[in-house]
């Protein structure tokens, strides 16, 4: 049942395929129920946050539509289903979501409670950031100083240098001779 709930975009979700399989329903009926909710005018903005369209490939390689749904979307659709299978599934689904949320909570980084340790972490992070910034500054300076000129820039600079040399020669009454 844990494979029923998967992580997608850092959110615990299930799919319309999984719901159809576990409830013993046709996938097209589950799709229709979701599409009816999404296309209804009432609360459509809320429905959009509960469901995300996706696709899967069937055994023949054909792409088919499916929906991902978060806990609210599942609750909204699946809790309308009735029967023994539906009740068993609902309980297992709730348990799977709870386990997934607990696992997520356990993976979170625990910050120290000692103020000195917090300051040490902040200092280390700042020091690492400063080192990275210094390296980036050095790289940028190197690139600025060693950048190759493209032909257009080279031509422009060459013309300007020639103009200035000719201007200097003219002002000082010099002549150019080949050596």
From TrEMBL:
This is Rha family transcriptional regulator. Pfam families: ORF6C (PF10552), Phage_pRha (PF09669). Residues 119-168 form the ORF6C domain. The lineage of its organism: Bacteria, Bacillati, Bacillota, Bacilli, Lactobacillales. It comes from Pediococcus acidilactici.
């Amino acid at each position: 049942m844990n494979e029923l709930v998967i992580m997608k975009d850092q959110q615990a979700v299930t799919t319309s395929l999984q719901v159809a399989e576990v409830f013993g329903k046709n996938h097209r009926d589950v799709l229709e129920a979701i599409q009816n909710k999404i296309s209804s005018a009432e609360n459509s903005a809320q429905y959009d946050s509960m469901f995300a369209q996706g696709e899967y490939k069937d055994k023949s390689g054909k792409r088919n539509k499916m929906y991902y749904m978060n806990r609210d979307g599942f609750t909204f659709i699946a809790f309308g289903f009735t029967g023994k299978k539906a009740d068993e599934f609902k309980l297992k689904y709730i348990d799977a979501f709870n386990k997934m949320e607990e696992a997520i909570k356990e993976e979170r980084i625990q910050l120290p409670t000692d103020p000195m340790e917090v300051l040490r972490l902040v200092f280390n992070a700042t020091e690492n950031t400063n080192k990275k910034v210094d390296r980036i500054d050095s790289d940028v300076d190197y690139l600025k100083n060693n950048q190759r000129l493209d032909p257009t820039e080279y031509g422009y600079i060459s013309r300007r240098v020639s103009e200035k040399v000719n201007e200097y020669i003219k002002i000082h009454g010099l002549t150019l001779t080949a050596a």
